[in-house]
Write a structure and sequence with these properties.
Blueprint: E1 6-7, E2 16-17, H1 37-55, H2 67-77, E3 83-84, E4 106-107, H3 110-126, H4 139-156, H5 170-177
Antiparallel strand pairs: 1-2, 3-4
Helix pairs in contact: 1-3, 2-4, 3-4
Length: 187
């Protein structure tokens, strides 16, 4: 591949961003205000994926793109990762804070990949793609992300737990659970 990514230092996801000067009508919203950070990031990610498809050998059109091509793209991005993922044979496997350096590879963090896929999935549909043909929502991509999450959590000794829904404060819960009784004067 001939992609030379520019890592945007303001990007918390730490994956390569290729800046291009393309104007997308989908990226410019109906309001005259400046796009949000999310919209800017989504546009840059979409442009990066577009360049990846153009540089693919043979070049690939978006309509022919599948979940397998998305996986290829995610594996390509690993070379720009900044998250140390210990191999099972590494003495620091499963330790969240290893005491010394090791030769294990740097990879894209699971959270970064998950957020990237979410933005690309939205961008695909904004650019006219149908939800049922969205390659970023393919089963293989979801399984890959789950595998990356599980392997990284084991390698780093950090488990990813689903966020629990916030419950209303106890006072509100009691009010919601108590049945409404008629007042004594109403009978």
């Amino acid at each position: 591949m001939d992609l030379v990514p520019h890592v945007d230092s303001s990007n918390s996801e730490n994956h390569p961003i290729i800046h291009t000067n393309t104007n997308s009508s989908a990226a410019s919203s109906s309001s005259a205000s400046t796009p949000s950070r999310y919209e800017n990031q989504k546009r840059r990610d979409w442009n990066t994926f577009g360049q990846y498809l153009n540089n693919h050998r043979p070049p690939l059109s978006l309509s022919r793109c599948s979940g397998a091509h998305v996986l290829e793209f995610l594996r390509y991005l690993d070379q720009f990762g900044k998250t140390k993922v210990h191999n099972q044979i590494c003495p620091f496997f499963g330790q969240p804070n290893p005491p010394a350096p090791c030769p294990c590879p740097l990879r894209q963090a699971w959270g970064s990949l998950d957020a990237l896929i979410g933005r690309l999935r939205a961008a695909f549909e904004e650019h006219g793609g149908k939800p049922e043909t969205n390659p970023f929502g393919a089963r293989a991509v979801r399984l890959y992300l789950r595998e990356v999450r599980d392997s990284q959590s084991k390698a780093r000794g950090v488990s990813y737990e689903k966020k629990k829904r916030k419950r209303p404060p106890p006072q509100q819960q009691q009010q919601q659970q108590q049945p409404v009784l008629p007042s004594p004067g109403a009978i």
